[in-house]
Design a protein that fits this description.
Keywords: Oxidoreductase. InterPro entries: Nitroreductase, Nitroreductase-like. This protein has nine helices and four strands; from the N terminus they run H-H-H-E-H-H-E-H-E-H-E-H-H. It is globular, with a radius of gyration of 17 Å. Strands 1-2-4-3 form a four-stranded antiparallel sheet, with helices on both faces. The protein is α+β, with helices and mostly antiparallel strands. The mean pLDDT is about 95. The chain is about 35% helix and about 15% strand. It has one domain: NADH Oxidase (3-Layer(aba) Sandwich).
Amino acid sequence: MSEIKTKAFRQAEHEIDPVYLNRWSPRSFLEKEVPEEVLMKLFEAARWAPSANNLQPWKFIIARTKEDREKFHSFINEGNRIWCEKAPVLAVLISNKEDPVHSFDAGTAWGYLSLQATREGLVTHAMGGFQRDKAREVLNIPDNFDPQVVIAIGYQGEKEVLPEKLQEREQPSSRKPLNEVLVEGEFK
């Protein structure tokens, strides 16, 4: 979606880089391969995310082949699978729970990845709707790592290819006003 169309849904209260407004989570993907050099830029950006004590507790398990993506489909909930099956790349973000802030740091890595994807002309959509225990089993994830999200990565497709109920949701979402998420001094 172009920046002009995105502006209809998102207005910043203060001037910020447009990448923050242009990044959103579509569900329609083209069945078009993402070139290796472009895909690796996303994970390189994630690698440089800040982390407590520089522990970098995250890892990404990716699926690019048909066979690997089908393994991932086995643990993704049906409501997500109906749209993410066309995504050419799926990734599971896991984090080492021996680090007390592993989820926070993994979320930062996801944020860096998603912003770099926007810069590369790609779209991403993180999903919490998956069976974590089954993902652990299928992907041989050790017990000291927690599966956080599954991320669909690719080029944006047309909303008309989605089921009708998802077409209605295929647009950038707005955000709460800044005064609803920022307080000063103490919780109010």
